[in-house]
Structures are given as structure tokens and as C-alpha cells.
TrEMBL record:
UniProt record similarity statement: Belongs to the class-I aminoacyl-tRNA synthetase family.
Encoding gene, per UniProt annotation: cysS
NCBIfam families in the cross-refs: cysS
Catalytic activity: tRNA(Cys) + L-cysteine + ATP = L-cysteinyl-tRNA(Cys) + AMP + diphosphate
Protein name: Cysteine--tRNA ligase
UniProt KW keywords: Aminoacyl-tRNA synthetase, ATP-binding, Cytoplasm, Ligase, Metal-binding, Nucleotide-binding, Protein biosynthesis, Zinc
Organism: Shinella yambaruensis
Principal location: cytoplasm
Lineage: superkingdom: Bacteria
Principal EC category: ligase
RNA sequence: GGCCUCGUGGCGGAGUGGUUACGCAGAGGACUGCAAAUCCUUGCACCCGAGUUCGAUUCUCGGCGAGGCCUCCA
């Protein structure tokens, strides 16, 4: 077995770059927090999807395709979802034509389908597992970890208590709570913006389970009919698919606190383990045209809007362009999403050769090395651009380019052209060549312009042997 | 108020205690009947101030600016 290349990753837990050493190289395990499916995913949501998709591809490249397990959840239980269901189906529910649960199912299904369509357009691979929170609330037939069992265990071990119709995690019961976000709960009180609820033992305690009113969705539990708190689902699903301790946990910067901090607390206290995930990775935030993205600023864009509507810069943007634009900034840096940036990504992509077969080439070291260094996609894209220029000059390099591009998920696809169109283009090219021989430039240029109108770009070259004009064409992407 | 990031040419962005990548755009040129593509050449920067140092864009401190979390927002 060849020596594995060394992968270095920045670990939020230690705030430093560390060499990555999987617990089991035959099964490298990664968990990423997925979407809460109550509304269309916005372009900011796309960032972790793309970043961790590249990491998934890289891990598969290093450890082998069958030796990486990637779980990304879908959160389909959340009070925002309930609110959305009432908003969209309130009338039907009132009339008794639809149950709340059915309305919720419709909201989550529609949103999840949309999410899948959106990220597929961004070139994201399907994770190995994509569990839904609702399937992990109650004990399961297959023995996989579920939320209620986890909560029971936390109570048994003295890390959780019932109060005021809730089950709460007792942050004081965990000696080293706050490791990830480097937060000291006592000092936290100074700012005193944490709401002090009378039933909480400590202001930082958070909800594991809360009771539902008859109108609210709920599941039967030892504490009555209710629904889970925000953080417990990831503790359950990560353990269900990756085990009590695994390699990498990822998500957006904003999740460090409280979400990930609380996940760690729940998981470690429930399992009695010193570590939940060895490495914690967080992607930076996204701004749009230099401003924080928000609906009130009018610079809020969903992935779908960028792909299919002419809202951003007055035009649609292909998924590959959005993806490449995202990878042109290091994942930990803030990224400013702008029209200019998308245009640059599109120009690059247009210069890259399509049609190479990744299976026939090897990933070039110039692309792989920067990726191994904490996912430096910026340097990798630059190296890939250089490879593209090599491949344009020398077709033998095409598979190398293709394999390298595929590692980043930015391999240009060969545009589909029907045989009939192809034939008619060839005929027009011949016609134009004849006109050029006759020095009938006006007619010849008209043919070129007409084809350009249809997105067909003609390129004139010279046959190196005869010096004859040779015309090739390609579909402008 | 507390805790974190970050600040490099028009733009995107590496990187380094000393000789300052690279890409895109721009300018000039080659090629072309003209284009496109391609190739060659080229201008332009390290937020401010103090300190450490023979020397700082790179280290330290202080400003200023941008952003995030502390409010179930990736």
C-alpha cells in the first residue's frame, strides 16, 4: 500500500491546523449539519454544502471511495416548520381537510426536494447518509441511536433534569462545557443578554425536550407528548451513522455556539466519552455585494433564484459558475458574493476544456497539494487553470485536467449538440470557407455572426502543414 | 459589555523578517481580411500609528474599519 498523503485541517477545537489522522482509515467518518427544511435554501446555505462536498471528494480520493462515510442530516422538526405549515395550509387545517402533521409533511417534502435539486445543480455529490430528524425521535426498530433514548441516558447520568414542562441539559454538570467556543459561562453573564428563565438551574441550560400542546406536533415520550430541542437531533443521527466518536464535524461558523457546543455536551455526557468528533470545521460567512445578506437590504438570494431567475445582475447563473465562484475564496474566509466575482468565474470556466474523461487521468499534484493543506481551493483552482491551459495546448493532458477538475467538482460538461445541428454547422463552415476563398467577407461574416447568435463560436486556425485555414467550433457555455 | 475572525494592487487572492506569487480585468504587441481563441510584453499593493530589529507587508502593542457569536440565522 502506498504511503497516504498527509492531509492537514484547521480544527476549531484547537484553533490550529493539524495533520489529520482518522480513527479508522478504512472508514473515515464525517458529519455536516444540513438544512432545516422550512424554506428555499439561500446562497449562504450553499457554502457549507460545496465546501464539505470538496472535502468529501478529497477524503474519497485519499482513503478510497468505499472508505469514507459522509452523513448530512435534514432537520424536518422545528418550530419554524410548524409556523410555515400553518401559514401555507392554515385554511385546510382549520377546515379539517388536512392534519397539521400532513401539512408539515408537505412543507418538509417540498423544501427537501427543492434543496436536492438546488445543490445537485451546484455539483454536490449525494452524502452516504441523509437521515431525517423525524425518523430519529423515538426508539427505532433497527437499534440505531434515537433522541429519546439519548435524553433518558442524560437524565440517568445526572446531566439533565425536568422542569417547567421541559427536559433541560444541566450545563453545570459538565466540567469542561464551553471548550469549542472558548466560552466561560460565568463571564457570559456579564453581558446578561441571556434570558433568565425561572425554571432553569443555570441560564445557559438548554432544552432537550419540550411538551407540545394538543395542536402542536409531538411524539409520545416518558415525559409526555412533546418534541425535541434544537441540538439533540445531530447528537442522535451522528451517533446512529458514525458512532459515538468520529473524525470530522462540519458546519457554518454561526453554529459553533450554541449548536455545536451543545451537541458536544449532549453526546459526550450521554456516551461518557472524552471526545465527540476529533476535528471541528467551520466555514466562514457570506456577504452579498459587500453587505450582510438580509431580506431588508434587498440582497437576499436563494440558490434557485440565482439559477433560474434574472434577479442577480439581471441574469441567470449556471450552477458551475456559482460553485467555482465559491471555491475562489478559502472556506474559512468571509466571502463577498458579487456579480464581478461570478463573471470572473464564468470567464475561467469558459476557457477550460470540456469532454475529458476523469477516469483516464490522474489528479495532478499541483491541484492536490493545496487541497491537502486545509482545503486551499483558491490555490487549487489556480493550478487547475494552469492545467487547463496545458490541456488546451496538448490534448494528452486533457484526462489529467479532467481528473483534477473532478476532484473539485468543477469539470466542465460537454455541451449536448444534436447530430442534425452538428451537420448543419459543418455545412455552414464549408460554405463560409468557400466564401472566404472568394473574398466574400460580408457573407462569410454573416454566417459566423448567425452561428454566434445561436451560441456556436467559430475559431479559425491554420493547418500547420499546408497553411490552409481550418475552422473549428464549440458551444459557448 | 464579553468572546472570536479578518484588513495585500481596479477585482479575486497566495506568501514571506530582507530580493514582493498568481489569476481576472486594463494597456501594448504578434497572429487574422476583420473577429474569436491563443501567445508575448507590461503598469499597479501589502489600513494607520508606535515598538522590537541592521531591516517588517510579515512579529508585539494601540487605533481605525469590516464581519461573526453571545437572541434555535450556514
Amino acid at each position: 500500500m502506498a504511503e497516504k498523503p498527509v492531509l492537514t485541517l484547521y480544527n476549531t477545537l484547537t484553533r490550529s491546523k493539524e495533520p489529520f489522522a482518522p480513527i479508522d482509515p478504512d472508514n473515515v467518518r464525517m458529519y455536516v449539519c444540513g438544512p432545516t427544511v422550512y424554506d428555499f435554501a439561500h446562497i449562504g446555505n450553499a457554502r457549507p454544502v460545496i465546501v464539505f462536498d470538496v472535502l468529501f471528494r478529497l477524503l474519497r480520493h485519499v482513503y478510497g471511495e468505499d472508505h469514507v462515510t459522509y452523513a448530512r442530516n435534514i432537520t424536518d422538526v422545528d418550530d419554524k416548520i410548524n409556523a410555515r405549515a400553518l401559514r401555507d395550509f392554515g385554511k385546510e387545517i382549520e377546515d379539517g381537510r388536512l392534519s397539521l402533521n400532513e401539512a408539515i409533511r408537505r412543507v418538509t417534502e417540498k423544501t427537501a426536494n427543492q434543496f436536492h435539486a438546488d445543490i445537485a445543480a451546484l455539483g454536490a455529490m449525494q452524502p452516504t447518509h441523509e437521515p431525517r430528524a423525524t425518523e430519529f425521535v423515538q426508539p427505532r426498530g433497527d437499534g440505531k441511536v434515537d433522541m429519546i433514548t439519548l435524553i433518558e441516558r442524560l437524565i440517568e447520568r445526572g446531566h439533565a433534569y425536568q422542569a417547567g414542562g421541559e427536559v433541560l441539559f444541566d450545563t453545570q454538570s459538565m466540567a469542561d462545557y464551553g471548550q469549542l467556543s472558548k466560552r466561560n459561562l460565568d463571564e457570559q453573564q456579564a453581558g446578561a443578554r441571556v434570558a433568565v428563565d425561572a425554571h432553569k438551574r443555570n441560564p445557559g441550560d438548554f432544552v432537550l425536550w419540550k411538551l407540545s400542546s394538543p395542536e402542536e406536533p409531538g411524539w409520545e415520550s416518558p415525559w409526555g407528548r412533546g418534541r425535541p430541542g434544537w441540538h439533540i437531533e445531530c447528537s442522535a443521527m451522528s451517533a446512529a451513522y458514525l458512532g459515538e466518536t468520529f473524525d470530522i464535524h462540519g458546519g457554518g461558523l454561526d453554529l459553533i455556539f450554541p449548536h455545536h457546543e451543545n451537541e458536544i455536551a449532549q453526546s459526550r455526557c450521554a456516551h461518557g466519552t472524552p471526545v465527540m468528533s476529533n476535528v471541528w470545521m467551520h466555514n466562514g460567512f457570506l456577504q452579498v455585494e459587500g453587505r450582510k445578506m438580509s431580506k431588508s437590504e434587498g440582497n437576499f438570494f436563494t440558490i434557485s433564484e440565482l439559477l433560474h431567475e434574472e434577479k442577480f445582475g439581471g441574469r441567470k447563473w449556471p450552477g458551475e459558475v456559482l460553485r467555482l465562484a465559491m471555491l475562489m475564496t478559502h472556506y474559512r474566509e468571509p466571502i463577498d458574493f458579487s456579480v464581478k466575482r461570478l463573471e470572473e468565474a464564468e470567464r475561467l470556466l469558459a476557457k477550460w476544456p470540456a469532454g475529458g474523461n476523469p477516469a483516464e487521468g490522474r489528479v495532478d499534484e499541483s491541484v492536490r497539494a493545496p487541497l491537502l493543506d486545509d482545503l486551499n481551493t483558491v490555490a487549487a483552482v489556480q493550478a487547475l487553470h494552469a492545467l487547463a491551459q496545458c490541456a488546451n495546448a496538448d490534448p494528452l493532458m486533457l484526462p489529467v485536467f479532467a481528473a483534477s477538475a473532478e476532484l473539485l467538482g468543477v469539470l466542465p460538461k460537454k455541451a449536448e449538440v444534436s447530430k442534425a445541428l452538428e451537420d448543419s454547422i459543418e455545412t455552414l463552415i464549408q460554405l463560409r470557407l468557400e466564401m472566404l476563398k472568394a473574398k466574400n467577407f460580408a457573407e462569410a461574416d454573416k454566417i459566423r455572426d448567425d452561428l454566434a447568435e445561436k451560441g456556436i463560436q467559430l475559431k479559425d486556425g491554420k493547418d500547420p502543414g499546408t497553411g490552409e485555414r481550418v475552422t473549428t467550433w464549440e458551444v459557448r457555455r
